[in-house]
């Protein structure tokens, strides 16, 4: 049963609903797939959702079906009741405390590790595509432009994704691989900790200059814990060869220090900080809109 609309966009509509047999709250995405591009995006998103199965750091899907008469595609996924990290930033209008940034960062990296271990490159890590809920759980979503890198080389060359969180090698038009997702995740973590995006670029040429010529973003070592500063510095290495992969970063002290207790503390902070109001579930459209 569907009970309310969570969001609408060029890609379709997302509604909240209830799975009758279990009483579980879910999100139902409905899309009209009427051309080849939409069909390919939907198939890629469903493939990503299938590969996400069982990972607690990726949004889970429960069902998918096509309306017999309408031709509409319906995808039933996990409902994340606090929206995206972009919503969290808007509600707070301030930096996230470093201990909670660490908890969020650890969950992002564990979700990325699951994708990368299955040779899936996300390609659009940004605050809008990282969801959270009242339990303190943080999960990646929106696999509509993800890419399966099963070749030996494991590189991609297409220009997709959101420019602000794009890695320098992608801005340069070079081939890129899994470490490009690491840069994007590092930018999200930096923004949460610092309270704002690091660059003031008015257009892509400005952004290109920032990504490829200006110093990489770094947190102030006098204001932030050493582990968080070190983690961000590793993620935001301009040289992608020197940038660690996610398999190395999940062993970083920042990540290994985060577990169930820290997730519980994040949930308590969300409930008491004014960062807990219910918002529409974003990040469910392949075009990035909600």
TrEMBL record:
<dbReference type="GO" id="GO:0004708">
    <property type="term" value="F:MAP kinase kinase activity"/>
</dbReference>
<feature type="domain" description="Protein kinase">
    <location>
        <begin position="1"/>
        <end position="255"/>
    </location>
</feature>
<keyword id="KW-0547">Nucleotide-binding</keyword>
<feature type="binding site">
    <location>
        <position position="29"/>
    </location>
    <ligand>
        <name>ATP</name>
    </ligand>
</feature>
<dbReference type="Pfam" id="PF00069">
    <property type="entry name" value="Pkinase"/>
</dbReference>
<keyword id="KW-0418">Kinase</keyword>
<dbReference type="GO" id="GO:0005524">
    <property type="term" value="F:ATP binding"/>
</dbReference>
<keyword id="KW-0808">Transferase</keyword>
<dbReference type="InterPro" id="IPR017441">
    <property type="entry name" value="Protein_kinase_ATP_BS"/>
</dbReference>
<keyword id="KW-0067">ATP-binding</keyword>
<comment type="similarity">
    <text>Belongs to the protein kinase superfamily. STE Ser/Thr protein kinase family. MAP kinase kinase subfamily.</text>
</comment>
<protein>
    <recommendedName>
        <fullName>mitogen-activated protein kinase kinase</fullName>
        <ecNumber>2.7.12.2</ecNumber>
    </recommendedName>
</protein>
<dbReference type="InterPro" id="IPR000719">
    <property type="entry name" value="Prot_kinase_dom"/>
</dbReference>
<dbReference type="InterPro" id="IPR011009">
    <property type="entry name" value="Kinase-like_dom_sf"/>
</dbReference>
């Amino acid at each position: 049963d569907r009970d309310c609309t969570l969001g609408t966009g060029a890609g379709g509509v997302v509604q909240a609903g209830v799975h009758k047999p279990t009483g579980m709250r879910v999100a139902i995405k409905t899309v009209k797939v009427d051309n080849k591009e939409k069909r390919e995006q939907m198939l890629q998103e469903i493939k990503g959702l299938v590969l996400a199965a069982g990972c607690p750091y990726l949004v889970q899907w429960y069902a998918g079906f096509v309306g017999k008469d309408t031709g509409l595609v319906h995808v039933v996924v996990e409902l994340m009741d606090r929206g995206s990290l972009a919503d969290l930033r808007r509600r707070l209008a301030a930096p996230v405390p470093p201990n909670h940034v660490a908890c969020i960062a650890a969950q992002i990296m564990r979700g990325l590790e699951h994708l990368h271990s299955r040779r899936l490159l996300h390609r659009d890590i940004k605050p809008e595509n990282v969801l959270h809920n009242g339990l303190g759980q943080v999960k990646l979503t929106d696999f509509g432009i993800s890419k399966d890198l099963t070749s030996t080389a494991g590189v991609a060359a297409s220009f997709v994704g959101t420019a602000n969180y794009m890695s320098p090698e992608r801005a340069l038009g070079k081939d890129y691989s899994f470490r490009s997702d690491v840069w994007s995740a590092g930018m999200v973590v930096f923004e949460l900790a610092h309270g704002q995006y690091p660059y003031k670029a008015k257009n892509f040429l400005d952004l290109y200059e920032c990504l490829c010529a200006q110093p990489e973003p770094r947190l102030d070592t006098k204001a932030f814990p050493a582990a968080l500063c070190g983690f961000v510095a590793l993620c935001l290495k301009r040289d992608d060869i020197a940038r660690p992969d996610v398999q190395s970063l999940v062993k970083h002290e920042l990540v290994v220090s985060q577990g169930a207790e820290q997730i519980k503390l994040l949930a308590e902070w969300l409930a008491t900080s004014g960062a807990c109001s219910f918002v529409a579930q974003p990040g469910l459209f392949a075009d990035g809109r909600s």
